[in-house]
């Protein structure tokens, strides 16, 4: 049965009523329901749904009507109760979202921490170089924890950083200390007078922890990345850091360490250090120096380097280490027992391999193959942190599994006498590695004992007393399990060698005079000086755990919750980087000029005239204008084809639908995009010669734009309807409405200035795409007095004023022409990346950008998401169409969702909060705000100004467009309203094309 409920004088916005309809329709026993205001047009929609009743027909336009097909009469009371409750809760529905302290893009990061001077990057290596490049462009030093960065990218980044007076630490830089703040995998080390520059992560950790346990400290330890001293890179970061450390006030002694360097680069580094103002200790892994020089000391092991630096800073004499392993039950050398060593990092593994090789006189060089630093005569040294072991698997600093597997293999080898390993403490490492390894060690010791074999476990704990894992605790766990725990890796290797009957010898080094060298002048930038002399301000891009540690040290840090820019498309990332690196200033200048034209535009409504009188393309042929980029008849959607049929019937080129379709299919009609003739058209956009159009002139630039008049709602041409009723209305608009409005507008000597009217309507709650009621009424307010004075038929006068007062969306078409005039004036500057047009034709979405002039960039169009009239859903919807997205291009419509609380529900069930989030998100892809149009509900900030195609591509945020939804079949008309997003491919194509125009290959 059909039940009708009329709530007299209860105005509710259509979006709220659509949501209410959806809620009521879900009630058990309700087979169909429609809830709308009882306007004449809506009554037609009720009728089409089979829900017209006498009570509905008697209701007024300000009455809310509920018509439902229910199984039981009692359900009407439930529906009314549910309705009352729903409407009551509208004001409180939604709720706030917890503020997110992190950021999601560079603009947010820089705005949140404008004084940042360091970017810490720990994202997949394939993207790391691009983000490091962006950080350099933002004036930040870079710490690249990320690995798998190409040598070519590393070279380019470090050269760029050097030229800009910045440092790039890394890639694959695991450790750093800057003004006592630990960065990445770092130990809690006391501040002090020793500085370190190192092309080694675990090497820096070993040095700093030994220094700390010896009672001294480190204020700055600059990691360079392991490849910095390769011939290709040339030691760029190391040299810049050495130069910076020379004048850093807290540093009295400097240690420089590196994995095996290229000889040419090593020589350059040594030449520089020979002229250093401070005492220096060097360690080039793999070299076995035999002397020291005055003020210039050369170590063989990390332990030696640390001990020399401590003696130097204390003013004590530098002597050799006197450590002697205290071992019992050692094997004899002749028994040919072997050492199996499994390390977390390459430097400690390399040092172990070097010491074993040199002590046993193996005559092999240092190198690495599949993680093996040494694999000779049964002796094995493995870097378990090598990519071959960590790709797709946890690092051995945080997971003991691989090390346990290796230890089991070692015990299975009867030649094995010693299993040597490290335990690395500090931030980022396993919270209790000793305990995690303990079961495996105990199991293997028991196995060896059962087999009556002596297998020794020897370890070194790389850590300090302040490390959260507890240095003493970790050490005691191992000692209690019978593991020999040594103070350093050098002592652990020395102990392992002693256990197989081999003695490691350390000779006393003579200190010889420093050779004469030619001093060079080195300049250190203020940015780098600040980096190592102040606590850093950091943008952390990637691992949140790094941020958490930085905050513990009272470091200013912003967490950048990174996602791959440009959808992870490396080609587009390179394009964006190219534009930013090579043309930042040029593009910024062009974009500023474009948006300045938008702000300076002065649109004025001058007239309403037949389209053929202002668009010359109509002359002498049958022409139809359509929405969107170019399209062929056969590719048009059914609604657009229906609009074409209606226009042909209106122009009397055919007398029936069949005849009209025959003409259209035969190619007798020429199709031209509205945009190509300074026009725009809603939905189907079909405009013919005798249709009246608004004439809007941008006085600032002297250009004009045109748009047809709004037909109202219901069955209308723009949604594909073409019945006689539709044609009759078009005839009336041609013969009455257009001439009357034209005559009225022409009485204004200088036309009707539109910017003040638009500003006023925004303050009244319009966003100018889905909601134009305030602007339509303000427009009527301007014209009504004039129309009342015109000499004309009284009925026609009444009909015109009644039509204007009934058509809430009437101003939309004026807004479209306004936006077109403004944006066309702006795009006379054919440079930059500002989006100057967005439109759709049901097949493709198309955009233009300022730098590419008239060229369209297209991709398949989407179908809107939204709320539907009763009886319809998304399956019934036509793909998106219309030129009305010119309003979003201008900065209103969906871009200004927050201006119109009444339509906020189009973006979700959260209401105002969602609209605020949407508008704030749109600000991420624009260049500025337009001060001419302030939004009260946005703290009186201006509307979005200048969509930047680069930002759309980089962030993957596409403009939100408010839109009506047409049925996919011609003639049905509008079935709902909602939002749609352009396909990002349009913007990608535009940005790539512009980059190629500028020279990108």
TrEMBL record:
ATP-citrate synthase/succinyl-CoA ligase C-terminal domain segment(s): 343-498
Residue stretches spanning the membrane: none
Superkingdom classification of source: Bacteria
UniProt xrefs under InterPro entries: AllG-like, CoA-bd, SUCC_ACL_C
Domain CoA-binding: 192-284
Protein name in UniProt: Acyl-CoA synthetase FdrA
Annotated source species: Faecalicatena faecalis
């Amino acid at each position: 049965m059909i039940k009708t409920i009329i709530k007299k004088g209860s105005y509710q916005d259509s979006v709220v009523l659509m949501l209410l309809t959806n809620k009521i329709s879900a009630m058990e026993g309700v087979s169909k329901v429609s809830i709308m205001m009882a306007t004449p047009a809506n009554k037609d929609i009720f009728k089409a749904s089979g829900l017209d009743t006498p009570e509905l027909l008697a209701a007024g336009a300000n009455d809310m009507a509920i018509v439902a097909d229910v199984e039981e009469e009692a359900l009407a009371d439930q529906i009314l109760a549910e309705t009352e409750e729903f409407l009551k809760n509208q004001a409180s529905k939604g709720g706030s979202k917890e503020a997110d302290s992190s950021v999601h893009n560079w603009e947010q990061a820089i705005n949140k921490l404008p004084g940042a001077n360091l970017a810490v990057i720990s994202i997949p290596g394939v993207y790391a170089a691009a983000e490091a490049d962006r950080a350099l462009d933002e004036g930040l030093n870079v710490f690249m924890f990320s690995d798998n960065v190409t040598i070519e990218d590393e070279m380019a980044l470090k050269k760029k950083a050097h030229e800009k007076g910045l440092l790039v630490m890394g890639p694959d830089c695991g450790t750093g200390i800057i003004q006592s703040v630990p960065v990445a995998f770092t130990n809690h080390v006391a501040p002090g007078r020793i500085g370190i520059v190192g092309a080694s992560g675990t090497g820096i950790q070993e040095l700093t922890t030994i220094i700390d346990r010896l009672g001294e400290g480190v204020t700055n330890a600059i990691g360079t990345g392991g490849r910095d001293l390769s011939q290709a890179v040339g030691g760029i970061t190391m040299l810049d850091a050495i130069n910076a450390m020379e004048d850093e006030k807290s540093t009295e002694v400097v240690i420089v360490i590196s994995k095996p360097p290229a000889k040419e680069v090593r020589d350059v580094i040594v030449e520089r250090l020979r002229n250093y103002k401070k005492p220096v200790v060097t360690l080039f892994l793999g070299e076995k120096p035999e002397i020291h020089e005055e003020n210039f000391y050369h170590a063989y092991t990390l332990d030696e380097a640390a001990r020399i630096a401590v003696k130097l800073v204390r003013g004590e004499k530098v002597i050799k280490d006197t450590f002697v392993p205290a071992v019992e039950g050692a094997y004899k050398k002749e028994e040919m027992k072997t050492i199996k060593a499994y390390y977390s990092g390459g430097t400690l593994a390399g040092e172990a391999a070097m010491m074993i090789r040199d002590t046993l006189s193996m005559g092999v060089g240092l190198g690495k193959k599949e993680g093996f630093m040494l694999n000779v005569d049964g002796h094995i040294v493995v870097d378990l942190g090598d990519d071959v072991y960590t790709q797709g698997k946890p690092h051995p600093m945080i997971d003991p599994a691989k090390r346990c597997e290796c230890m089991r293999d070692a015990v299975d080898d009867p030649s094995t006498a010693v299993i040597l390993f490290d335990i690395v403490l500090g931030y980022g490492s396993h919270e209790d590695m000793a305990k995690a390894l303990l079961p495996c060690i105990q199991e293997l010791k028991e196995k060896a004992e059962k087999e009556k074999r002596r297998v020794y476990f020897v370890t070194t704990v790389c850590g300090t007393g302040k490390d959260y894992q507890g240095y003493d605790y970790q050490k005691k766990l191992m000692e209690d399990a019978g593991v020999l725990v040594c103070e350093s890796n050098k002592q652990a290797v020395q102990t392992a060698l002693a256990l197989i009957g081999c003695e490691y010898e350390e000779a006393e080094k003579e200190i010889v005079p420093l050779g004469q060298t030619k001093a060079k002048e080195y300049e250190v930038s203020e940015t780098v000086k600040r980096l190592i002399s102040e606590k850093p301000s950091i943008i952390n891009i990637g691992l949140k755990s790094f941020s958490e540690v930085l905050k513990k040290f009272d470091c200013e840090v912003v967490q950048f919750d990174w996602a791959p820019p440009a959808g992870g498309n490396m080609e587009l990332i390179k394009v964006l980087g190219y534009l930013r690196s090579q043309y930042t200033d040029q593009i910024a200048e062009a974009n500023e000029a474009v948006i300045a034209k938008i702000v300076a535009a002065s649109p004025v409504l001058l007239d309403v005239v037949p389209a053929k009188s202002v668009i010359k393309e109509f002359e002498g042929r049958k022409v139809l204008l359509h929405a969107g980029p170019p399209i062929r008849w056969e590719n048009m959607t059914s609604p657009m084809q229906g609009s074409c049929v209606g226009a042909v019937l209106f122009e009397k080129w055919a007398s029936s639908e069949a005849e009209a379709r025959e003409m259209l299919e035969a190619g007798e009609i020429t199709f031209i995009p509205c945009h190509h003739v300074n026009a725009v058209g809603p939905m189907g956009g079909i405009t013919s010669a005798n249709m009246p159009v608004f004439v809007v002139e941008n006085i600032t630039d002297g250009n004009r734009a045109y748009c047809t008049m709004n037909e109202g709602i219901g069955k209308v041409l723009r949604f594909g309807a073409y019945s006689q009723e539709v044609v009759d209305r078009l005839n009336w608009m041609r013969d009455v409405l257009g001439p009357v409005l034209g005559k009225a507008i022409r009485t204004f000597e200088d036309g009707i200035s539109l910017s003040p009217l638009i500003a006023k309507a925004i303050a009244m709650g319009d966003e100018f795409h889905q909601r134009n009621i305030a602007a339509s009424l303000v427009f009527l307010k301007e014209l009504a007095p004039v129309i009342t004075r015109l000499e004309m038929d009284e009925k026609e006068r009444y009909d015109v004023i009644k039509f204007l007062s009934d058509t809430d969306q009437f101003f939309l078409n004026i807004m479209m022409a306004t936006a077109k005039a403004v944006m066309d004036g702006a795009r006379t500057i054919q440079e930059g990346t500002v989006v100057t047009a967005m439109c759709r034709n049901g097949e493709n979405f198309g955009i233009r950008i300022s730098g590419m002039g008239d060229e369209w960039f297209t991709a398949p169009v989407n179908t809107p998401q939204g709320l539907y009239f009763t009886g319809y859903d998304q399956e019934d919807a036509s793909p998106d169409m219309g030129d009305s997205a010119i309003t979003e291009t201008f900065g209103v419509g969906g871009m200004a969702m927050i201006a119109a609380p009444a339509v906020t529900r189009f973006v979700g069930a959260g209401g105002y909060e969602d609209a605020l989030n949407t508008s704030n998100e749109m600000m991420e892809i624009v260049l500025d705000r337009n001060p001419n149009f302030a939004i009260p509900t946005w703290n009186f900030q201006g509307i979005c100004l200048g969509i930047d195609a680069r930002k759309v591509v980089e962030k993957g945020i596409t403009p939100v467009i408010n839109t009506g939804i047409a049925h996919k079949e011609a003639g049905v008309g509008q079935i709902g309203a909602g939002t749609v997003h352009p396909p990002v491919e349009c913007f990608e194509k535009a940005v790539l094309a512009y980059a190629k125009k500028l020279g990108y290959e």
